[in-house]
Amino acid sequence: MLNEYSSKFWTCTILFLIVHKLLHSGATMQHTWLYLLSGLSLSLVLLSRAEEGLEFPNFDGKDRVLDINERNYKKALRRYDLLCLFYHEPVPASKGLQKRFQMTELVLELTAQVLENKDIGFGMVDAQRDAKVAQKLGLEEVGSLYVFKDDRIIEFDGELSSDTLVEFLLDVLEDPVEIINNAMELRAFERMEEDIRLIGYFKGEDSCWYFQAFQEASERFQPYIKFFATFDKSVAKHLSLKMNEVNFYEPFMEEPAILPGRPLTEMDIVEFVHQHRRATLRKLRAENMFEVWEDDMDGIHIVAFAEEEDPDGYEFLEILKDVARDNTNNPYLSIVWIDPDDFPLLTTYWEKTFKVDLFRPQIGVVNVTDADSVWLDMSNDEDLPTAEDLEDWIEDVLSGRVNTEDDDEFADDPENDHYILEESDENPDTDEEDDGDD
Amino acid sequence: MLNEYSSKFWTCTILFLIVHKLLHSGATMQHTWLYLLSGLSLSLVLLSRAEEGLEFPNFDGKDRVLDINERNYKKALRRYDLLCLFYHEPVPASKGLQKRFQMTELVLELTAQVLENKDIGFGMVDAQRDAKVAQKLGLEEVGSLYVFKDDRIIEFDGELSSDTLVEFLLDVLEDPVEIINNAMELRAFERMEEDIRLIGYFKGEDSCWYFQAFQEASERFQPYIKFFATFDKSVAKHLSLKMNEVNFYEPFMEEPAILPGRPLTEMDIVEFVHQHRRATLRKLRAENMFEVWEDDMDGIHIVAFAEEEDPDGYEFLEILKDVARDNTNNPYLSIVWIDPDDFPLLTTYWEKTFKVDLFRPQIGVVNVTDADSVWLDMSNDEDLPTAEDLEDWIEDVLSGRVNTEDDDEFADDPENDHYILEESDENPDTDEEDDGDD
Description:
homodimer, 15% strand, alpha/beta, 438 residues, disordered N terminus
């Protein structure tokens, strides 16, 4: 048994070794990589296993990330199917800030290595030194990662780790519109209830103006929003789709919305998606977690924790879906669902920050400026709250009757910062009658 | 936008900084932690965000992993709900091997920090210095991680990264038997088709001999095999379960097996699970990936790649399930299903090693001693193979007609190592008639 060598961990180790050398040797980057290639061999030998087929990649020390400037950016854009550019502040003088910068570079280096055969270029654009290039490329937010595919720019706003980034880029490489050909693929489509999906019915792939408009719209949202098309009459019939019609499925909704306008232009579709993008119930994912978190509702999020693989969590999620379906037309409601299984390293941080037990389902309000929170008290109940109970509570949240500030008279004592919500005065009897007051 | 700082990456970085200091300073571990606490503050400041609530933990430098020896092991066993011991070879003299050891220790340190409030102890047992303790504790395999819960030992054989280990330990902390109380929880149970599940119907939790035997059996397999129980008549009726009866669900099978023997003792259940544990179709997971890989069939695995979220992949997986259902009684067949989405960093490694395109579903035979492989050629087909096509191919694999050695006449040229299988002589017409020969 040789599995004590965490491959992810080794990867980081080797990367760090390189950073360390960079900081202390003063050598140029190119030389440092080469220098380290020999030093790494001992470590890599240790990773050998008796059985082959499950080897995690380790950074090989080869420099793949380009230093983008006015002379090479056009060539880079032409050369690759995808170009992935990190737009960064000027490399600072302080060692600590330099480290931060190099860490990011090295996440990109490992990603570039892993995706070496996929024709993806990687580069860094300095916001000061390469200001002109940045302007020409349309880079706006310093600290963002931009992916160029054909003539489009895709911003990445997820966790900048190699595994999340690799998965994201592989998604970007796929066709932006997936074709649904038969009943089995239709079943796969219908199972994707967690995602926003659009599906259109068209005559065919070629020489079809409607399909082209749909495809061009899809490219603007890839890979965040999934676009499907069918050319098959029986698939279309099953979905009640007329020719050249497009349906929009909000996550967890059974009935789609039909996109208005005929003929549907690219801009019709794009505008509709922009307007309906913030779903009533949306799942937090590593690939865009910060984007979702920044898209708060007046400084708060309604957050629900539910582990889908756990019977309790599954049941609670089903109740949440009912609530979302009942309130899908309320523009002020958007619940962020977090499955703790997707974020093992954050689970205990959340338990500590929010003072809740994540072995059980939870729902609460989080103030995103200070992570102050209040949570619906479900601890005394044998059964979970009903959809009606939840809707009453959500109404209290949206009206401000339940908020994160009311318990802050104890704010001087940090231990009292995040009380579990005790029932408010408006509903003194709810606690006893959680199951019966509907 | 501050999400350019990959938190996982930072974590590793900080850990590495500590290792590096250990190697170069010669200080004791305790002092090194303390020394570094001050040095880390700059980096941590850089992680602050405008919005709160999604902070990945960074190692705080506090030493939580115990050095287990004859004097403290009994106390450690008594003190914690869980004790997690890494059984390791003596710390070697060479610097490279020392690093490896310290890396493992630091994966444990971060895990210990993240789970600090969960009453889990962590320790290292030296196979040479602490040989007696190891013997008393029943530690057998050097390089393994053992978890002690009550009077049981659970071996961890997955990827030793902090996130996989945290998730695993949180699962171990839960009750080994999950109770199914109502129709909604039953639906959650029925959806878990990827897992081996046992479910029993009992009178009640207390003073029920049958339930106790079931519970004790469950503890031996936690968290790898899921045990459920119900005390509810209508749930039992839906599952056709008689009182004190236990059903065993193989992954992806619709009909369960009824455990033989009445009354069912703990050993009856344990033996049945041991006999039926290797499923006809089993999903590869990070938590026990090496265990599954080591459990090969005469040196080979039949491996299927299918991305469940992709319509093509979903369709192929459904075909695989049909094949598995048709062949569930064949003890020589066990297909390892890998969803590439679960292993983003391995995807391109597999593509390179096996010379296959993982944007499409694939099935092949892998020789685990050298990762040599042959793959069913599905590239020319509009449609995926039928279940019958797959069964014919599997028959050829099991009979040895399809194997990884036949193409090795070119073995001297490494480029020719992993040819996609061309149709063998036995079935010269299959290529043209993939859809019609059933």
